[in-house]
Every structure is written in C-alpha cells, then in structure tokens.
Amino acid sequence: MQFIALTSIGIEQLLQDEITQLGASVLKLTVGSVTFESDTLTAQKICLSSRFATRIMMLIASKDTIKDKEALYNFARFQPWQEYFGPKQTFLVDFSGTNAELKNTQFAGLVVKDAIVDYFQDLYEVRPNVDKQEPNVRVVARLNRETVNLYIDYSGPSLSQRGYRTAQGKAPIKEHLAAALIKRSGWLTDITQPLYDPCCGAGTLLIEAVSMARNEAPGLEREQFAFERLPGFKEAQFLELKELLAAQVTSPNLYVIGHDVDRHVLGKAKDNCRKAGFGQIITLDQGDATKLKAVAKRPGVVISNLPYGERLGGTAELISLYRLLGQGLKQHFANWHVSMFGSDESLLKLLKLVKHKQYKFKNGPIDCLLNNYLLDEKQVQQSEAQTGLNYPASEAFGNRLKKNNQALKKWLKKDEVVAYRLYDADIPEYNVAVDVYLDHVIVYEYAPPKQIDEEVAHKRLQDVIFLTGQQLEINPDKVVVKQRKRQKGDAQYQSFAKRNESFTVTEYGAKFKVNLHDYLDTGLFLDHRLARRYIQQNSQDKRFLNLFAYTGSASVHAALGGAKSVTTVDMSKTYLDWAQENFALNNLKNARYHFEKADCLKWLEHATGQYDLIFLDPPTFSNSKRMEDAFDVQRDHIKLFTWVKNILSPTGTLLFSNNKRGFKIDQEALEALGLKAKNITDQTLSPDFNRNKNIHNSWLITYA
C-alpha cells in the first residue's frame, strides 16, 4: 500500500532515511512530505517509531482529471468506503487546494462529504454522521491543479505530540523539529560525550536527545492511533510489535545538562523531564547564558534553540545574549561542537563564530537556521576586538556617550535631573538618539538615509545598543529600542505591543508617569523641560490653558505653580487619562482643573473665556482623520494666533513652541494682529539639548 508521511520543511531527508531504516520503500521526496510503500504492519511501526514525521496518511486513490464539482463528486462517490469505516461510524473530510472551477475548499469538502454519505445511503440505506471534533475516521483530500489524492488519516493527531510536554515556554519548538536538530548536531554519533543546552526552556531538545539515545520509540505511550479504528486492524499483531520495540530500549550512561535563566520556565522543564521518565537522567539548574561556565571535563556538544524577542524583553537583551554567549563559548568550551538554532542570522553572527555547516528549517511559519560550529584552537584564539563589535569604529560612539555623560554630570546633580538626552546623532554614521530615564535607557533609531546599506545600518545599531548598556552600566533588560520616524495621522496616538509597564520620574518638584514600551514617546517630552519650568514659575494666580496637551505635564507644572485654573485639551482619551494620572501623582485636585477631549484646532477656533497664560505646542504637520483639515504649522500659525487672541487676556502671555526646522514667524501678519513675539529658544534649551539647536523653537507672544 502507498502512504505519505508529512513533516516540516528541512526535515524531509532525515524522514526519508528514517522510513527506509524502518523497512519501507521510499517512492518520492517532496517539500514537507515523503511518499513510501509498505504493508500495514510496517506503516504501524513507522507511526510508533518515527521521530521526524508529524502525520502518516494512507492513499485511497488518485486521479488527475478533476476539473469541476461533478468530476470530484463522481471520483469520491465510487471509492470502496466500506473498507475504511462503517455507516455507524463518524467521519470528517479535510480538503485543501483549489483550481479554476473548485475555488473554495469548504465547498469542495462538502462535495466529497456528500459523495461519501450518498455511497453509504445507497449501499446500506444509512447515512453516517459528520463529527468535526473527534471523528472515528478522517478523510483527507488534496487538490493540486486537476489532481486529487484521497487519503485516510492513518496516524491520527500529530505524531510530534509525544505526551511528555505538560508545559512549555514562550518560544517552543515541536518535538519532531527538536529531534531533527539533535540528529543534525552530530551528538548521536557518540552519546558518551556531554550534551549541554544553556537556554533549555521547557527541555524539549534534551528530552528528545535522551529518548533517541535510549532508542525509545516515541509512540509507545500513545493512547491510540487512527489505524486502530480501521477495519482489518489486528490488535494482537500490533501488541506484539509494541513489545518488540519496547525490548529494544537501552539504558546508556548519559551526561545531559540544561540551564535556563528563568526559574519558572526551568520548573516546566523539570516537570516535562519527570513526565518523560528522565528526571534522574537530565540535570537541570538555573544558569545565565551570558555568564557561561564549564560544565564538563571532556568536550561534548552544546546545542540550543536560542531565545528571540518573545522569550526576552527585546532587542538589547538579545544582542547582549548572543554576544556574551559567543564570548563564553570560546572561553569555556574549547574543542566542543556547538549547534545553535535561531531565526535571525544577523543575531547568530554576533556569536562571532565561523560555522562549518548550516541547515535550513521551518519552525512553524518562521524560517530558521541551525548553525554548527567547531570550537577548535583556531576558532578560540581568533583575533577580534574585546567587545566583539561589528565595526571597530563603533568605539567612537561609546566614547562619545562617555564624554557626554561626563559633561552633563554637574548639571544633572545641580538640577536633580533624572530623565535626559545623552546623545543625538552626534556622530552622523551613528544616527540614533539616546535618552536616559533613571536606570533605563531608550535608543531611538532614526530611519537611515536611502543611500545607506540596510545591513550596515543594522550592524551599527547592534553596536550602539550593546555599547549603550555597557558604557552606562545598564542591564540589557532596561535598554529599550525604538525607531523614530515622522508619524502620520493617527499613528502618533497608536500604541505598540502593550506591556503596561510604567514608573515615575521627577522634574523640578513634579512627578510624572512614563511608559517606555507601549508608545513611540514616553509621556514626557524632555526638550520642553525648561519651558515647563517657566510655566511653573509664572503661573501664580493665572488662568492656564494647555493645548495639544499630550499627557498634561505642562498642566501639572502650572497647577504646582499656583495657577488659579488649569484647562488641558487633547484629542486623545489615552493621553487625557494619563494627564489625570499625573495630576493624581502630584496630589492635585481642584474643581478648576478641567480636562477636555477635543480636536484642539476646532476647540480653539470656537473657544470663549479668558486665559492669562497659554501653552501652545502644535504638531509640525497633521492630517489626522479626527481633524477636519490638514494642518501645517508654518502655513497656519497666524490662523492659530488669530484664534488665541480671542481668549488671551490683555496682560496675558502665549508660550508658543514647535519642532519644525527653520520655522519663521510671519512678523508682519503678527503685528497686524496687534501682537509681538520674543524668541526664547535659547532659554528653553537645557544642556542636554544644546547640541541640537533645531530640536524646537520657543516664543513668548503678547499684545504689542
């Protein structure tokens, strides 16, 4: 009989070799599958023994002239279905593939289902039922152009589900892929050598390795296979086969070690090892892969499914992990073989190891690589900079960080500043901004110019991230990386993947909630620090208005400065809620503190009342759907001032700010309004922003 074994991309050759060794004749190897011929007992042996297959299906029939519904129905209608199940059993049709006429898989599946039901109705005058949850028999139909293959699911639920994994980490690999990685690592050629996984997660790699070394058929503990429900199944013969396979299990002395930095994940690994029966064989301990130590006296194999973003906080942690892991391997694992599995080749390159073999796999939908290395004397002693940077020139960035930090120390201490900008594209090739928030740091990557090679920019960024944490002595899990580019429309209000992590920073007696992860900005515009201090110092008994208020930081300063009333206007509910949280942080509560959700332009156009101090910091440009018209601060600032004049008290002051490079006030139009402007930009640039005179413009506008 003919069967097809399914697997993941990259494992096909291993599966072919395995099927051949188990006694079947391989007919064809295709992407993700191996077609073979065998008797039913051998097929059952493959279901029990295969480490690399995910499913085995038995071919019923194949036809290459299926163009439409009628042809499909007739093909399915005249198969001998009674040989595979009876009219009182339930079934399910799993259909995939389309062609010019059969464009909908659900419809095509119904055609096959109707054909099967009609077959039994004609033969037995009984219609079998469909069960979408737990059918007795699963019929599989695969359409490719005009060829349809009909199968019976022979193995049942995925063969990669061995039954020992009661829990898993955040970035698991399936058991059949883990087995393939073990096979490709070469460890099985000498199982007396140590096997070590420094990032073992839930322990899947190590459990598969031990099971393979012991020659355990992975399906021996499975409750039931689909073929056990088929007519003609011989239970006695099958039980004899299981006994034969169980007798082949060996008990070699193994030295298998797993470490993981996450105690919770390590607990899952221990549970899984116990469930697999290997609790006394696999040694598991908490350990940090960035601080490797020797684990054995003789060389062996290091293998790991290295973490990526989901198992760690983000880019900085990953870069630090890969760099330090590579250094640790060279320092403590001379003459070991190393197999590292990952999804990002640029991260694997940070190991600074020369691979001698590479295998490509799919981990679900993700393209992945297994790189094999040999840490021979040449590899261990290869010359490289101590830091292992991509570019030696990156040291200049690190030195600039150190220099800037030293230059700001006196001011930071004097003004008790805890949130500040340390670097802003000071070296053009390292086009980032670095902001410090207490013991955290944000690296903002500016979008590189088109003429800069993307890979070069990426490698420079890796160096920047690593050096930032190193120079500032900040843990990688507290280094946040974001890309800063011009935000359009509602994008400026959209959040990233929610982490809901925030903490409080202080500024001239005010407290503010900052969130470094969930939004492009943190909740506090650092360059407006001195503008906010001006507001605090000039708010006593004033009616204060804050437009485009963001998270209301200027409003908090006004309230702390003794403002008679504070009105905070922004179109974002998220930011207004944040503003009210900031007020609560500072124990500010007064009936004259108002928060209004509105399109600021529309609100200002129709505003009434009088204000003595107004802070207006509009966006440079906005075409938000929540604003009726596109706004350009250079073109429209006089319109803004016209509206502001209607609510500015006779002795009032407008503090106007914007971030447009080269902004120029239309003095003639301003004078026509009876207003005058004083440029105070230099007075609102604190020492951390003096390097970038274009960060913002600030003006005091009063009546002439």
Structural summary, described in words:
With 704 residues, the protein is an alpha/beta fold. It has four domains: 2-153, VC0802-like (2-Layer Sandwich), CATH 3.30.2130; 175-215 and 250-380, 3-Layer(aba) Sandwich (Rossmann fold); 392-485, Transcription Regulator spoIIAA (2-Layer Sandwich), CATH 3.30.750.80; 517-703, Rossmann fold (3-Layer(aba) Sandwich), CATH 3.40.50.150. Helices cover 31% and strands 24% of the residues. It is built from 19 helices and 29 strands. The chain has a seven-stranded mixed β-sheet with strand order 2-3-1-4-7-6-5. InterPro entries: 23SrRNA_methyltr_KL, RlmKL-like_Mtase, RlmL_1st, SAM-dep_methyl-trfase, SAM-dependent_MTases_sf, THUMP_dom. It is found in: Cytoplasm. Specifically methylates the guanine in position 2445 (m2G2445) and the guanine in position 2069 (m7G2069) of 23S rRNA. It catalyses: guanosine(2445) in 23S rRNA + S-adenosyl-L-methionine = N(2)-methylguanosine(2445) in 23S rRNA + S-adenosyl-L-homocysteine + H(+); guanosine(2069) in 23S rRNA + S-adenosyl-L-methionine = N(2)-methylguanosine(2069) in 23S rRNA + S-adenosyl-L-homocysteine + H(+). Its EC number is 2.1.1.173, 2.1.1.264.
